[in-house]
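Subject: sequence -> structure tokens, single chain

Hey, anyone have a minute? Need the predicted structure for the following. Not urgent.
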Amino acid sequence: MTCPAPLSRLRIILLAGLMTLLGLCNQATAQTRTLNAKCTLKIDGVVQIDDRCHFSSTADSDSFDDLRLLVVCPNGRDAAVADCAGYEQRVARQGVFGYLFRDSGVARLCWNEGSMRKAQSCFEGLRRTGACWSNPRATVSGDASRVRSVELCAWRS
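Reply:
Had a minute. Here:
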């Protein structure tokens, strides 16, 4: 029996590495669940979203999006496909999106207030009950003296 040539060994090592990498990518993809859902978001009793939404969940976070937000460049083209700097972009159509970051049974919710390009308005201390995360006295991130009533719910549609 002869040993494979050095080049063949290198190919085997590279192929094994590639297969391992592809396996890791498939595991990461399998751990992210994405579904069309029915979402509600209420801030201080005001309904911000009560409709179908795109909902995605990983081991420690969720994201939700009503897919309505339209951000455009100065030429009026959708910023997702056009090339313009962030400071040039403007919101042409309002829409709600946000993130829920979970840690040991408590969550932090950040959302875009329906009209911002980034989810930067955040609330602390939400707890889960069924399909909802809520806190009637959620503290506003960065200002513990301010509290708001926050509730996010998502159901498979």
